Amino acid sequence: MKRHDAEAERRFPGPDYRQVLRWLHEHLRPRVYVEIGVLRGDTMLLANPDTVAVGVDPAADVQAPLPRNARLFRMTSDDFFQREELDAICASDSLGLAFVDGLHLFEQVIRDVHGLMDYAGPETIVALHDTVPLNAETSTRVRRTEFHTGDVWKAVVYLRAHWPELRVLTIPAAPTGITLLRGFGARQTATPDGALLSRIAALDWPYFEQHHTRFLNLGLNEQAALHSFCQ
Questions:
Q1: Which residue among 76, 119, 126, 213 is least crowded, i.e. fewest CB within 10 A of its CB?
Q2: How many Cα atoms sit within 13 Å of 110 on the Cβ side?
Q3: What is the pLDDT of residues 116-142, one digit of tens each?
C-alpha cells in the first residue's frame, strides 16, 4: 500500500480528490448531493450546511457526526434506486452533485450513473472516482492489492459512447483521479446498452495505456479548470 501511495503522489502532484470535491461544493452549492460509497463519511463532511447530503453504503463505518442535513441509507445502491428513495428528496429540484465511489466494477458504476439520471438536470455534475488507475496490478476486477481501482475507467469509455453529448473532464488528482460528467438532462430515461457493455468489458490494460488521454479528457489539477467546466 505504501509503495502504491508513494507512486500515486509522484504521478498526481497537487490537491487530492477531496480538494476537488470541496471545490465542487463551493462552486455549485448544490441543494441535493448524493454520494455512492460513504465508507467513513469523510467526503460527506465536505457538503455545505444548507445542502441535503445523501449517502448510500451498505457497510458505512462513519467515524464523525455527519452534517445536520445528511441522510445515510445503509443499503446497496441498486436497492436505493429500486426503492426510489430520492423521489421525495428531489421532488422540487434537480440533483446538483453526485459522487460515485462504490464498488470498483465498471458495470456497477454505470448502473449507479443510470440510477442518478432520473433526478439529473442539464447542470447536474456526476463525479466518478478511481478513473485513472495506477497500473495493471491495481486495476484488476478481482482485488489482489490493498490499493485498488478495479476497472472503473471502462465506465468512462462506455458513457462517452452511450451518451456522446456528455461533457467530460478528468482531473488527475491523487490518488486515482476523478472524472466529471455533465449534460445528462436530455436522456434521463436511457437504459444500459447490453451489447455495448459486453464490448467494453473485453477492453484490457493495453487499451487503457494507448487511449486513456483521449477518452478521459485529462485536464489540469487546478481550480480554474474545474470552474471552467462548471460554467
A1: 213
A2: 25
A3: 998 998 899 999 999 999 898 989 998
For 48-89, the pLDDT digits (tens) are 999 999 999 999 999 888 888 999 999 999 999 999 999 999
Q: Which residue, 130, 116, 136, 137, is CA-closest to 188?
A: 116
Say which amino acid occupies 89. I
β-pairing, 71-73 with 52-56?
A: parallel
Over pLDDT 70: what percentage of the chain? Answer: 96
Q: Look up the pTM and report it.
A: 0.95
CB of 33 within 8 A of CB of 47?
yes
CA atoms within 13 A on the CB side of 202: 5
Helices (H) and strands (E) counted in the chain, each on its own, are: 9, 7
Stated length of the chain: 231
Strands 167-171 and 52-56: unpaired
* Whole-angstrom distance, CA of residue 205 vs CA of residue 152: 12
What is the spatial distance between Cα 228 and Cα 212, in angstroms, rounded to a whole number? 22
Q: Which helix (H) or strand (E) holds 97?
A: strand 95-100
Indicate whether 191 pLDDT > 70: yes
CB 91 within 8 A of CB 71: no
Q: Please state, in angstroms and rounded to a whole number, the distance separating the CA atoms of residues 94 and 33.
A: 10
The position carrying cell 457538503 is 47
Report the alpha-carbon distance of residue 29 to residue 100 in Å, rounded: 18
What was the pLDDT predicted at 106?
96
pLDDT over 60 (residue 31):
yes
